[in-house]
Amino acid sequence: MLPEVRPYVSTALADQLEHQLDLAPHLEAGQLDVEGVAGVAVVAAAHCDGYVATGHLLGLLAALPAPTTAGEHFWSDLWRSSGTAYLLPVNIKDSVLRSLAGEGTTLARQILSAVDEMTPPQRVAAGEVIGQALVESDHLPDLKTQVIGELWLRDLELTAWRVLHADRRSDDPAGRKAFLDAWTSV
Question: What sign does the CA torsion over 13, 43, 156, 101 have?
Answer without folding.
Answer: positive
